[in-house]
Amino acid sequence: MELNMRLYQKLFTGVICLGLLTACGSTNPPTQQLTETQMVIQQAEELGAEDYAPLEIRDARIKLDLAREAVKDEEYDKAIRLAEHARLDAELAQIKARSGKAQKEVAELRESIRVLKSEIERNQRNN
Amino acid sequence: MMNLLQQIHTTFLPKAILGLIPLLLIFTGCAGPQAANSELTTATEAYNEAQRDPSIAQFAPVALKEAEEALERTQSLWEAKADKSSVDHYAYIALQKTRIALETAAFNAANQEISRSEVERQQVLLDVRRSEADRSEARAQSALEEARGERALADEARRRADLLAARVNELEARPTDRGLVLTLGDVLFETGQSDLRSAGMKTMDDLAKFLQEYPERNILVEGFTDNVGSESFNMELSRKRANSVKAAILNRNIAENRIRTVGYGFQYPVGSNDTAAGRQQNRRVEIIISEQDGTITTRGQ
To answer: How many CB pairs under 8 A join A and B?
Structure first.
């Protein structure tokens, strides 16, 4: 019985230690996450984020760089959070670029409709 | 926190309404007053503003829901008194998700507007083509009418020309270099006198009618005699005969300025004064009808 108790105690201590370790932070660099974030930033750039969301895309790049530095310093938790922020900034930049382009298209269509309507009026006046 | 209160509320209210008040007091005591997290406040304000915009719920319900969940998670962390850096981290996520929801709504609204505008543009394009077709048709129509008008004018001119030819034929006038010439023979006048016989009146009627129909044309009346008798007598007689023709035309309502007269006596014979037939030919009145410009050249000019 005493032996069993000791075993339970050891197991319990182990679980606590594991829990503490997990709480303390990651033991592996978030390489995958950084790669993904880099891709999201790249997609945002391809969508024209530089024109439509220059501040957001700048924030994303800076935070990704900081995340990489944190990885070098083996501050993985910090790296994860920075990468997460960078990704959200890049996602915001993407949707801003899409939205900006769509609004431009709306403006162009409206202008085209306006021109066509004035053409109709001119035709009717000349009749 | 609200959910928990709600649960407590529904669980205990029916059984112990009075017990609720101390319980609430205890609960509030447990939560305690807590310093506000500025990042969380910013995120909450941004979310509340987005939620009030009905277009966000319409155009980006999923993104808004994600923002809401991120905000709730931050809120619970804060309530559980998690460390500030964690609350800040999740608050930023909630804030960015709210911003993404706003932009997603703008993007989807713009896309809907693009679809609508494209339909409208197609419709307007059709209208443009229709209006262009209408315009071409109107132009073709007016060209046709113009052509018809020109043809009508041409028809009218031809009709008038035909009529003139017919009238000239009726008058028995002959075309010459000076214009149409109508000759009134000696037999239409009383012998040795200037009065027109009734037979001449018929010719006067025709001539007056002609002048009424062609108001741009004028006439020159020239009197001639044979060489029997003195020059002055013949000159006088030729003038008188020309004037009696003028008087007859004036009587038929033709303006005086359209009629000129001249007497030439025995000048310009057309036949030989040696024979009776030739002398009769020479005793005559010639009426020259002008062309449309109204002018007639006088003899010897």
So the answer is: 75
